[in-house]
Amino acid sequence: MTPDSSPLARQPQVEAIVDLDAIAHNVGILRTHAGSADVLVVVKADAYNHGAYEVAKTALAAGATAIGVTTVAEAVALREAGIGAPILCWLNTPDADFAAAVRADIEIGVASTEHLRAVAAAARAVGEAATVSVKVDTGLNRNGASPHEYPHLLDELVTLARQGTVRLRAIFSHLAVADEPHNPTNDLQRDRFIEAVDAAKARGLTPELVHLANSAATLTRPDLHFDLVRPGIAVYGLTPVPDIGDFGLIPAMTVRARVALVKEVAAGEGVSYGHEWTAERDTTVALLPIGYADGLPRALGGKFEVLLGGARRPSIGRVCMDQVVVDLGPDAGGVAAGDEAVLFGSGKNGEPTAQDWATTLGTIHYEVVTGIRGRVVRNYVGGAAE
Ligand SMILES: *Cc1c(COP(=O)(O)O)cnc(C)c1O
């Protein structure tokens, strides 16, 4: 998405509006659930497509104490933008620009001896100690040091910490099935995590923090909170456990498109490529200038609704690259070109939600909000934007 830098710009055709007050509200809910644990807000992937800098700033003002991202580049960009809080990044190739991370005082997640050595080399080159957090694999079997690698990583860390080349900030791990709070794998990962922390302490290492919980565990498993929780999706107002509840979270992103054209379609006429939809009666349709190139999935064609002119209007026919058509019914419902159609939002005004799209698509709302792109212009309401 393109950030809209000009406040005087004509209202965009297609817009993603991010409500920073909703972000602050959601951080407040997460802090309440976190209890005595601190809150690190995950703003990877440009804050799940909500804008990393704006979300980080808003979340810190709302009481979060740290920021998490994936890569060194994301972390350094936030530091350069003026985020002063601790920033952790946790997924980098061993040849990443760790020197830039050290210079910007970024906490670097390491998952292997190779990573740690690369970070140490960067620290020596810069002439400052690197701050590292050890990512240990407790059962996700994705990122994180494997049970075989972990003892070697700790041994190397002991040496480097003694030399003053690196400083150990934290030991952390990531859950595989936190969205199923009662799944025994959560207990297994907790037990393995505690063992991993003990193994570090047995070597004389003293992590300042240990952390394990994502959004789902923050909201449903207080026994997994440790010193700090790392929510991502819940910050954006989307519940990580839709079957359990929404915890009072408010979805922060609203996607809307302005009607480009209203026209009549006669009974028997087909609409859009392939004529997959045919008018059963004379009707009126609205053309919306958003398509699959903008993150409206083609698989949703004929399977979603928009809120337009005070009512839900069904999409008809195929979603094209740049456009989609909705049926207004014979009287057009007073809809005119330029009117706003809401594709998804918080749901509080009767509009569909990202969860509705996810359910229809057989995916998760994470993919829906991160998929909005192309010509969609992102704007902010609430928070520091006002
Ligand atoms: C993405 C991520 C999170 C946040 O997960 P959510 O399910 O969005 O809360 C936390 N920790 C790590 C390591 C992650 O990669």
Note down, in words, how this protein is organized.
The structure is a single chain. Helix 1 (20-34) packs across helix 3. The chain has two domains: 20-236, Alpha-Beta Barrel (TIM Barrel), CATH 3.20.20; 253-352, Lyase, Ornithine Decarboxylase, Chain A, domain 1, CATH 2.40.37. The protein has helices at residues 20-34, 44-49, 52-61, 72-81, 98-103, 113-126, 149-163, 184-202, 215-220, 354-361, 365-371; strands at residues 2-3, 14-19, 38-42, 66-69, 87-89, 107-110, 130-135, 166-172, 209-213, 228-229, 253-258, 261-265, 270-271, 277-278, 283-288, 305-308, 311-316, 324-329, 340-344, 377-381. The mean pLDDT is 96. The strands form three sheets. A ten-stranded mixed β-sheet has the order 1-20-2-11-19-16-17-18-15-12. The protein has 386 residues and is α/β, with parallel strands linked by helices.
How would you summarize what this structure contains?
This protein is of the alpha/beta class and 386 residues long.
State the main characteristics.
2 domains; 11 helices; 8-stranded parallel barrel; EC 5.1.1.1; TIM Barrel; alpha/beta; single chain; Lyase, Ornithine Decarboxylase, Chain A, domain 1; 10-stranded mixed beta sheet; 24% strand
> Please, how many domains?
2
| CA gyration radius, whole angstroms | 24 Å
How many DSSP E strands? Answer: 20
Spans of at least 5 consecutive residues whose pLDDT stays below 50 are: none
Q: Could you say what the CATH topology of the largest domain is called?
A: TIM Barrel
| CATH C-level category of the largest domain | Alpha Beta
Strand content: 15-25%
Distance between the termini: 21 Å
Biggest β-sheet strands, sense, barrel: 10 strands, mixed
Q: Total number of helical segments?
A: 11
Instruction: Give the names of the bound compounds.
Output: pyridoxal-5'-phosphate
The CATH superfamily of the largest domain is known as Alanine racemase
Helix content: 25-40%
Mean pLDDT: 96
Q: What is the global morphology?
A: elongated
Binding site for substrate: 142, 321
EC number: 5.1.1.1
Function: Catalyzes the interconversion of L-alanine and D-alanine. May also act on other amino acids.
Pathway: Amino-acid biosynthesis; D-alanine biosynthesis; D-alanine from L-alanine: step 1/1
